[in-house]
C-alpha cells in the first residue's frame, strides 16, 4: 500500500494536479479575503457610506452588501466543490487506476 502512495506521489501528472488544485483554492481564498477585508475596511473608514439608507427606506446599504458577501462565499464554495468533484476527482481517479491503487 505504501509503495502505491509513493508511486502516485512521484507521478508528474499527480504533482501537476496538486499544484493546479492548490492554485485554484488559493485564488478563491484570495477573492474571499479581499472582499471580507474590504468590507471591514469600509466599516472602519467609511461608516457613513454603509449607514446610508437604501432607496430612502429603513434598510442601510450595508445590509445588502453584507448579504452579498455571504452569497459570494456560498457561490465560491459551490464553484470549488463542482470543480473538485468534476475535474480534479476524475483526474485523480485516472491516475490511481493507472497505478492500480
Give an account of the 3D structure.
- The protein has helices at residues 2-10, 12-45, 47-51, 62-98.
- It is an all-alpha fold.
- Helix 2 (12-45) packs antiparallel against helix 4 (62-98).
What portion of the residues fall into strands of 2 or more residues? under 5%
Instruction: Give the overall average pLDDT.
Output: 90
Round the Cα radius of gyration to an integer and report it. 21 Å
Q: What portion of residues is helical?
A: over 70%
Order of helices and strands: HHHH
Topology:
Blueprint: H1 2-10, H2 12-45, H3 47-51, H4 62-98
Helix pairs in contact: 2-4
Give descriptors for this structure.
single chain, elongated, mainly alpha, 101 residues
